[in-house]
Structures are given as structure tokens and as C-alpha cells.
Write a structure and sequence with these properties.
binds copper (II) ion, alpha+beta, 2 domains, about 500 residues, eight-stranded antiparallel β-barrel, 11 helices, two-stranded antiparallel ribbon, about 15% strand
Length: about 500
């Protein structure tokens, strides 16, 4: 029920009239929000190109009742002081059944409406039919787009493969066989220095420095994007729920459904995976926002807590709690980016298979927040990672308060960072991926080379991680869409209890 609908009401005309225009009563925008106790509320009104703030509309208040079909009823009342003042209409509708074989299912409410109170020459007791058709979720890429330079860079094959492989290598390392580890090492894609790798999900994840890798690598990404697009700003706080439409002065029709860019997309069903499906629902509840997200945010901004943890522990805890949960709360169901109109936009509820390297997935509209190949193409990623990055300075201030002068600032490869001291900062060279030691930038010093972003090599490394066991030698098979992986959701941001 959540979302924006096109509402259409029709006369109950019993004779054939041959002209559908004569059946029209009203076409308007219906917006609905659903609470956890099945109350619905919202607006019904005509949406101007740009609201002046004095438009009439009706406010909607009602209930959803479970059943087959689902029943929905509401009363709409005209806005006081407007030309709809005093209007009262009552509605009963049903969510029409879905066809199992429908290729492009769309939610529709069909029902009946009555004028409960007369207004003007319109008598009470008139009855009309209506149906409402659900609009697509207004994606952040449309309502709060990133600068073209950012999209071009982040949607490139190099950056997509780098982000996917960087996360995949450290997330999967602890569970890889010796052969797979050797194969990744031979490609230079082990997470961290060879033989002292830093797995992000191993038993020592809070103390091995992987959390510093997480904060450092994303600090560079955030800096790169802000240099290209200064409007890519942080969430200063985890966004509170807001109503997805507004009739306030200046509100543009193009923002209806996602007024501030932070609107929550609906959950979806992941076939064969009831746990993930339930998690997607749970994540979107306001009660989960207040219990989980707010509790984490309070902890990770509390100087008393921040003064007690190493940067590595903080990074790892943030990564696998609020960070992963923010990714999945704001993720909207992935859709096929295939330019062929027959395929384009079809639901892909399990997302891109991790070894499907078809060029269609490079399309800028493939910006699914739930996997690392695509999340950083989504505008929400930069708000979310801005929030994560701001915790680094909170941590530094808390450390300064508790033990002034102990943590020393320094730059590493052009990134503002901290000197390793084996207690509060564990790693002196955070891991970003393999580097070309022969072609370093002199100004970065320290003999650090450029990051190696060779796509065929990165595809081989991803095939090691997500593909079948290598045979005897660390010899790699060519990657490609034909190489089916059994790990359909391996690259999703995970639920890790902490
Ligand atoms: Cu990332």
C-alpha cells in the first residue's frame, strides 16, 4: 500500500455510451503511508507542476485489513479553508489479485466511493467506481542525481570491479580454501599484505585492522566524489521517516514520491530466501529504525564509547552493523538494465549473479544499493558513506579528549589519516587493492604505486572467490556469464549480528 498511485474515478453508467471521456469523474494523485498497525494515511489531490502552497486536496485516513483480497478503506476530508473545505468522501477498495505469470506486475486498487456530505450542487449519497494504479518508486538517481562526472567514473567497469572485488576479497577470505587463497595471492588480490591478510569476517575481525581498511578505502572514495560533485553531502543523522509527497509551496511534481531523496523503497520477495525477505521488511520498519539504527548511531557518536575503541574495531563494528543495514534499508529491488525493451526494467529479485560480467550491468541505472558492484553508483551511497566517514573525526575528537596528543594525524597516499601506534591505530598501510610499484606518483611518496584496476585480472580474481574450486595449480579459468555460481546473493551486504 505504501507509495504514490494514480487515482481515477468513473461514473457508474449502466448504458453503453461509446465515449470513455464521458465516464471520467476525476483523475488525481493518491499517496499512502502504512503504519505497523495497518493504518493508512496520506493525500488525494491534483498535483500541479510546482505547488504554490494554496492548492486544495483531501487528507486520507483509513485502514488496511488482511484477507484475500486485501481490503482497504479510508475517509477523505477536504483541506480546511480550501475550495474542498467540508468535503467528505468514503472509500472501500480491494487490492486486485496478481497473476502468477504476469511479466510486469503492478499493484492496483479497485473499489467504490461515495459522497458522504453534499457540497455545492453535488448531493450526498452519490456512488462512483474508482481504481488506483501504483507508480514506480522515484529512484534517487532521478530525483537527486549525482554529477555526470561522478556517474561516468563510478559506473565504469574499473570502479565497479574494484569495489566488488575489494569487498569480496576481504569478506570471503576467511572461508576460502588454501587453493583459492593461493590463486588470489598470485593475482595480487589477497586482502592486505601477502600472508598477513586482513579478513573482514574472520574471528579476529575486530583486532586485525580490517576495519581501518574499510574506513580508509571509503574515505578515498568519498573524497574523490566530493571533488567532482560538492553536492554529494553526508547524512548528518540517519534520516527520519518523512512523507513521500508534499503540497508545500515550491514542491515540484517531479519530486512526488521522494521529496528529499531519502524516501524508503518498499521491500520485495527474494524467491527461495524467506530469511532475507523477512529482513528486508524488518529493516524498513520505523520500530527497527528506533531500536537498531538509533541505538547504533547513539553508540558510534558517543565520545565515552569512541575513546575506548581502536579505529580498527570501530570501523569493523560500523561496517557490519549500521553500514550494512543502511545499505539494505534503502535498497530498492534490482531491475534488469538490459536495453532491450522486452527485458528492460524486469524485476531481478536476487540481483546480478556475482560472476555475470555482461556489459548491461555497467549501465548507470544499475545502481542497486544491495551489492558492491553497483551500490556506489547510487546517490544514497554517498550520503550513507559520508555519515560513516564523519565517525572517523568523532573518534579522533573523543581520543583527543581522553588522551590528548596520543593519536597523531598524518597523510597516507594523499588521504588524511593517523599514525599507526599498535594500540589505537593498528595498520600503517591500509589496504585498497594491488598497486603498480613501478609507476608510483612521486608526490604521494613512500614508494606507493597506482592502484591496479585491470578489469580482466579483477574478473579472474572474482571467479576465484565465487567460482568453483581451482584444480591442482592456482590456474584460473576464464570468467564469463556462462560460469554459473551457486552463490546467487554472495555479494549482498550481509546481516551480521553484533
Ligand atoms: Cu564499499
Amino acid at each position: 500500500m505504501r507509495g504514490v498511485w494514480v487515482y481515477r474515478s468513473l461514473f457508474n453508467e449502466p448504458e453503453t455510451i461509446g465515449d470513455f471521456n464521458r465516464l471520467e469523474v476525476w483523475e488525481a494523485e493518491l499517496s499512502l503511508e502504512l503504519t505497523e498497525d495497518n493504518r493508512i494515511y496520506g493525500f488525494l489531490g491534483e498535483r500541479p507542476e510546482e505547488a504554490k502552497g494554496d492548492e486544495p486536496y483531501l487528507t486520507v485516513d483509513g485502514r488496511v485489513e488482511d484477507g484475500d483480497p486485501i481490503r482497504v478503506s479510508w475517509r477523505a476530508k477536504g483541506k480546511p479553508g480550501s475550495e474542498y473545505d467540508g468535503w467528505i468522501y468514503d472509500y472501500v477498495g480491494y487490492l486486485v489479485p496478481a497473476w502468477a505469470d504476469a511479466t510486469r506486475p503492478r499493484a492496483v486498487i479497485a473499489g467504490t466511493v461515495t459522497r458522504t456530505v453534499a457540497h455545492g450542487k453535488a448531493p450526498a449519497g452519490s456512488v462512483f467506481s474508482f481504481y488506483a494504479v501504483k507508480k514506480d518508486f522515484l529512484e534517487p538517481r532521478i530525483c537527486i542525481p549525482l554529477a555526470k562526472a561522478v556517474i561516468d567514473m563510478m559506473a565504469s567497469a574499473e570502479h565497479r570491479h574494484h569495489h566488488a572485488l575489494w569487498h569480496g576479497s576481504r569478506d570471503e577470505w576467511a572461508g576460502l580454501s588454501a587453493k583459492k587463497r593461493a590463486a588470489l595471492q598470485s593475482l595480487g588480490w589477497q586482502p592486505g599484505p601477502k600472508d598477513t591478510e586482513r579478513a573482514s569476517l574472520g574471528p579476529d575481525r575486530l583486532t586485525n585492522g580490517s576495519g581501518e581498511d574499510f574506513l580508509f578505502m571509503h574515505r578515498r572514495m568519498v573524497g574523490t566524489v566530493r571533488a567532482l560533485d560538492p553536492s554529494a553531502r553526508s547524512w548528518s543523522r540517519v534520516p527520519q521517516p518523512t512523507f513521500p509527497v508534499s503540497f508545500d509551496a515550491g514542491t515540484k511534481a517531479t519530486s512526488a514520491g521522494n521529496v528529499d531523496g531519502n524516501a524508503l523503497p518498499n521491500a520485495w520477495v527474494v524467491p527461495g530466501d524467506p530469511n532475507t525477505t523477512a529482513w528486508l521488511v524488518e529493516l524498513r520498519k520505523t520500530s527497527t529504525l528506533y531500536s537498531r539504527f538509533t541505538a547504533w548511531e547513539t553508540l558510534y557518536t558517543d565520545p565515552r564509547y569512541l575513546a575506548t575503541v581502536s579505529l580498527a574495531e570501530l570501523g569493523s563494528r560500523i561496517e557490519f552493523t549500521i553500514h550494512n543495514w543502511m545499505h539494505m534499508r534503502w535498497a530498492s529491488m534490482p531491475r534488469d538494465p538490459n536495453p532491450d525493451p522486452a527485458e528492460h526494467g524486469l524485476p531481478v529479485p536476487v540481483g546480478r549473479p556475482p560472476l555475470d560480467f555482461d556489459s548491461k550491468w555497467l549501465s548507470p541505472e544499475y545502481d542497486y544499493l544491495g551489492e558492491t558492484f553497483s551500490s556506489h553508483v547510487n546517490p544514497i551511497f554517498w550520503r550513507l558513506h559520508g555519515w560513516v566517514d564523519d565517525r572517523i573525526e568523532d573518534w579522533f575528537r573523543a581520543q583527543e579528549g581522553a588522551r590528548p596528543g596520543v593519536i597523531k594525524r598524518m597523510q597516507i597516499d594523499g588521504i588524511d589519516w593517523f599514525e599507526a601506534d599498535k594500540r589505537w591505530v593498528l595498520v600503517d598501510e591500509p589496504w585498497e587493492g594491488p598497486r603498480d610499484l613501478h609507476h608510483g606518483h612521486a608526490e604521494h611518496g613512500g614508494g606507493h604505486g597506482d592502484l591496479l584496476l585491470d578489469v580482466p585480472t579483477m574478473q579472474k580474481a572474482l571467479s576465484v572467490i565465487y567460482g568453483p574450486e581451482p584444480r591442482t595449480e592456482p590456474e584460473i579459468t576464464a570468467a564469463g556469464p556462462a560460469m554459473a555460481s551457486s552463490r546467487a546473493t554472495a555479494t549482498w551486504f550481509k546481516r551480521v549480528e553484533d
